[in-house]
């Protein structure tokens, strides 16, 4: 994990091997219960994971902003007080933050291109699995960066919140443009389309609250997407408890 | 004939592409959808029996998928097996000897580059006996209109994964209805709901591919 930091900005470059790749976790995310998935699925996933490293260029980071102010559910950031309309759910969780980190992370276009090529060649099965590996890789990479931020803040006696992203928990995805305007130009090589889609597609972005009163919650309770794979995992974990 | 339809349906449902394929393990070494379709034509069975087997197999796996008894990988393997059988039907589709139930023009709406959900619907709909004209992703209203012009009587399917792009469906539907008022438009995608579909003037919505096939079947019945 190569790191370059200034007072406000931390940027990371990660190799694919630094991320934990868990075929069983991915299989569960695809909807299967333990032992129910076809063996072929595990075999193909393992092959994809062993070939994916050279196709990933993982970059991520965050900007730490201490000047924050709430105007109802709008979070105003920096000297210019750029207002992020995060919505009530995120505002409720982050109201007591003392500072925030705006983050972005991408794995580049390699896996996306590979998946599309497989699908164009008629191998939708492998193409879909490459796409799933790509999605999990960018999430895992961001998790590593979040872990780094958490350790950094723990050393100061502070806690961090969940990652909250535009498009989730009532934060409109159009807010991506404001979020990226607060990050350095061309941060991690991510650009936005007019419809607020990040390119490369396998990218994540959002905000993390920092402060002694921050906590991590399961955001499925706030979301109304009933058929989401993460919800299935959440419901399963609740049953196991 | 009914034995053949059942055998082919099983291969499609279980994703048994051909004899060489190792999946599913319990059918290892047996003929797959590819061989069964080829043998059926050699034995002089009507080509539309192959289509019947494919429809039955895809219907079964699609229903399991709707009930969370099967997941995307199994649906994709089934689609692969279906394609292997359907490839043998290409000349009969071209000659008109085997007729599809109708045509679905499908595309991901303008501004959106996500295509996996749209591809799943396309596969299951094709397996349901329809011709699918796939316009790809980031499809403009003009492209939808041109496709309707080229395929009169077709039904349109639109997909979106982003809340920012699903709103583009409304203007596309308005333009389609203005020029082709009788054209049925279906919508789908993760953020789309029945309420949203009703509000933007869509004729149908389904949260899963099999639901889309059911709506299409109703339309052409």
Q: Give the biggest beta sheet of chain B.
A: 5 strands, parallel
Q: Which spans of chain A have pLDDT < 50 for at least 5 consecutive residues?
A: none
Low-confidence stretches of chain B: none
User: What's the arrangement of strands in the largest beta sheet of chain A?
Assistant: 1-2-3-7-11-8
| Helical stretch tally of chain A | 7
Mean of the pLDDT scores of chain B? 94
Number of strands of chain A: 11
- Assembly level: heterodimer
Shape of chain A: globular
Distance between the termini of chain A: 34 Å
Strand content of chain B: 5-15%
Q: Rg of chain B from C-alpha positions?
A: 18 Å
Cα Rg of chain A: 18 Å
Q: What percentage of the residues of chain A does DSSP assign to strands (E)?
A: 15-25%
Protein chains sharing the most extensive interface: A-B, 29 and 30 residues
Percent range for helical residues of chain A?
25-40%
Helical segment tally of chain B?
A: 11
Structural class of chain A: alpha+beta
Secondary-structure element order of chain B, N to C: HHHHHEHEHEHHEHEH
Please write the string of helix (H) and strand (E) elements of chain A.
EEHHEEEEHEHHEHEEEH
Can you describe this structure?
The complex is a heterodimer of chains A (241) and B (221). Chain A has 241 residues and is of the alpha+beta class. Chain A has helices spanning 23-29, 39-52, 88-94, 110-120, 124-154, 176-181, 229-240; strands at 2-5, 9-14, 58-65, 68-71, 74-77, 82-85, 99-106, 159-164, 191-192, 198-199, 203-211. In chain A, a hairpin with a 2-residue loop joins strand 4 and strand 5. In chain A, helix 4 (110-120) packs antiparallel against helix 5 (124-154). Chain B is an alpha/beta fold and 221 residues long. Helices cover 54% and strands 10% of the residues of chain B. Chain B has helices spanning 2-14, 33-42, 47-66, 72-86, 90-95, 116-127, 141-150, 163-166, 168-179, 194-199, 209-220; strands at residues 103-108, 131-134, 155-159, 185-188, 204-205. A 5-stranded parallel β-sheet of chain B has the order 2-1-3-4-5, sandwiched between helices. Chain B is globular. Chain A binds chain B through residues 30-32, 37-41, 119, 122-125, 128-129, 131, 167, 172-174, 193-197, 201, 225, 227-228, and chain B through 22-25, 68, 71-74, 76-77, 79-80, 83, 111-116, 119, 123, 162-165, 168, 190-191, 207.
């Amino acid at each position: 994990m190569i790191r370059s930091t200034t007072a406000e900005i931390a940027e990371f470059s990660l190799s694919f091997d630094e991320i934990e790749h868990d075929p069983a976790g991915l299989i569960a995310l695809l909807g299967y219960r333990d032992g129910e998935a076809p063996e072929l699925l595990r075999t193909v996933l393992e092959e994809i994971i062993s070939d994916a490293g050279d196709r990933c260029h993982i970059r991520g980071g965050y900007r730490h902003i201490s000047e924050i102010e709430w105007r109802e559910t709008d979070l105003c950031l920096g000297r210019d007080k750029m207002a992020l309309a995060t919505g009530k759910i995120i505002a409720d969780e982050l109201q007591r933050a003392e500072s925030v980190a705006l983050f972005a992370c991408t794995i580049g276009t390699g896996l996306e291109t590979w998946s599309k090529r497989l699908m164009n060649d008629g191998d939708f099965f492998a193409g879909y699995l490459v796409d799933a590996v790509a999605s999990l890789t960018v999430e895992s990479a961001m998790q590593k960066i979040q872990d780094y931020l958490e350790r950094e803040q723990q050393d100061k006696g502070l806690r961090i919140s969940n990652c909250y992203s535009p498009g989730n928990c009532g934060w409109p995805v159009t807010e991506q443009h404001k979020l990226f305007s607060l990050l350095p130009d061309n941060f991690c090589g991510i650009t936005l389309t007019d419809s607020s889609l990040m390119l490369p597609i396998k990218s994540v972005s959002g905000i993390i609250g920092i402060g002694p009163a921050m906590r991590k919650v399961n955001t499925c309770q706030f979301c109304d997407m009933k058929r989401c794979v993460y919800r299935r995992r959440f419901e399963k974990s609740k049953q196991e408890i | 004939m009914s034995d053949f339809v059942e055998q082919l349906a099983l291969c499609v449902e279980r994703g048994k592409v051909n004899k060489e394929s190792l999946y599913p393990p319990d059918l290892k070494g047996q003929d797959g959808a590819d061989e069964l379709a080829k043998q059926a034509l050699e034995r002089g069975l009507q080509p539309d029996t192959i289509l019947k087997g494919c429809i039955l197999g895809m219907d079964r796996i699609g229903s399991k998928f709707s009930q969370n008894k099967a997941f995307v990988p199994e649906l994709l393997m089934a689609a692969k097996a279906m394609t292997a059988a359907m490839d043998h039907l290409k000349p009969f589709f071209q000659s008109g000897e085997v007729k599809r139930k109708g045509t679905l023009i499908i595309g991901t709406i303008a501004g959106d580059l996500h295509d996996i959900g749209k591809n799943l619907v396309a596969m299951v709909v094709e397996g349901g006996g329809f011709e699918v004209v796939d316009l790809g992703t980031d499809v403009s209203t003009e492209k939808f209109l041109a496709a309707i012009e080229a395929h009169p009587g077709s039904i349109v399917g639109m997909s979106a994964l982003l809340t920012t792009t699903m709103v583009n469906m409304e203007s596309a539907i308005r333009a389609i209805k203005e020029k082709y008022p009788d054209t049925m438009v279906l919508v789908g995608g993760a953020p789309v709901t029945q309420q949203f579909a009703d509000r933007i003037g869509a004729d149908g919505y389904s949260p899963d591919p099999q639901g889309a096939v059911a709506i299409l079947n109703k339309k052409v019945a």
